[in-house]
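Re: the 468-residue chain
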Amino acid sequence: MTDSLSPDLLVLGGGPGGYVAALRAAQLGLAVVCVERDQTLGGTCVNVGCIPSKALLGSSEHFEFAKHHAAEHGIQLSGVTLDLATMMKRKDSVVAQNTKGVEFLFKKNKVTWAKGTGTLRAGNVVEVAGHDGVVTTYRPKHLILATGSVPAALPFLPFDEERVLSNVGALKIPEVPKHLIVIGGGVIGLELGSVWRRLGATVTVIEYAPTILPGNDADITTEATKIFTKQGMVLHTATKVTGGKRAGDTVTIEVEQDGKPTSFDADYVLVSIGRKPSLLGVDAAALGLKLGARGEIVVDDQMRTNLPNVFAIGDAVGGKLLAHKAEDEGVIAAEVIAGKPVHMHYHNMPAVVYTWPEVATCGLTEAEARATGRAIKVGKFPFSANGRARTMGSTDGFVKFVTDATTDEILGCHMIGPNVSDLLSEVVLAMEYRGTADDIGATVHSHPTLSETVKEAALGALGRALHI
């Protein structure tokens, strides 16, 4: 019988990667301990990231619809007001349901939750300092580091989570800002900026790159810029933040645009310039753990580090910082530990921005595909030509395919439009099987559905879209 202090596996971190790794290992018959210092399981994603932000995005969408769009549907509403406290309470309730769900799964699968802060010592010994001050020492046979990431800060404008906010503070502002400045036009900045814009704030986004959502397909960034500007966001791209300071309830941000200095004042500032690996409890230098140029843990395609029997997953290993990536890495690590011949690949890793309309992408952009030197074809179909989108009153955006002109293989797919986070899944599946535009174009899609835009865009890559 396995000693509880010498389990088959200890997972350091209970976020999406860590808790999924623990569950999969338990399914495979391993005795598992998961160390998590927070009062709840789920990590950044469930507690202060993916889940609460989507709850506020959903609530704010309802508010904006009631206030500005219900009349288009023949629904006359008057006196629509915001009860921010109730909205926040609902968000917290949704988070609690998810964290309690993870805790239930631990109990169901007999995963031990070691509540406290874990520190990795030489020889794969882990000391867990409990909230009561008691230190428990574990000597697991295998170890998975799932320590996640933390928000990157500006050196001249540290987070105080009162007026200068990370994603954590931006999820619990006690009032609707008069003016919210968002530094960083990526996923987090645009999602949380959308929440507060819908609720009545003036939102200014400052992005250093030439476009918002840098790294996305050029057609996506162009369309997103047009749509978000129309919605009321003020977007400043190719703009460098050079300084900032807080004085009372006002934060001043100094920037440089076209080589000229200027400044903006706001009552709240969200700094969303990216995240960096967190190695809390792991002294890489002392342990001899190999790190990459950005401080990420270096792993192979089985999630092994350079230390014997030590694996690492999720944001701590860098790459795209996505919860679903971390989950898959956790499964791979657990299965390798259990002796299965598996490995991780990142060929078709989907990514989503949960603004409205949503953005969902997978694979190569058109520019990246052309840079490979191969001949390509592009198919594009607008939601304005889709019957279901018209009935919804959500006709902004399009679906775009990038395919190999010779083989017809799907190289990339880029969507902006209603519910595209769900529409992308069939494309990712097709890409996993190295499917073609013809495979999707020949597949019957129900009518009327938004999914018909996917079929039509695939047909467009073949030169035979039907409804445009």
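Residues 351-461 form a domain with the Enolase-like; domain 1 fold (CATH 3.30.390.30).
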